[in-house]
Amino acid sequence: MSPYFLFTSCMSGVSRRLLVKSSSLRTLTGIGGELGSRAMRASVRVRKGIRVQRSRFVFFAVPPQRETDGVGAAPGIFWMLVSPNNRPLGRASGCHPTYGECWDAVVCLQQGHERLRVVESTAERTGQWCWWAELDRAVVAVSSRSYLRGRECTYNVERFLEAVPKAAIVSGTRNTARDGRRARDDDPAPRWSGRTPPTGIRRLSHPGSATGTPR
Question: What is the DSSP string of 122-148?
Answer without folding.
Answer: E-TTT--EEEEEEETTEEEEE-SS-BS
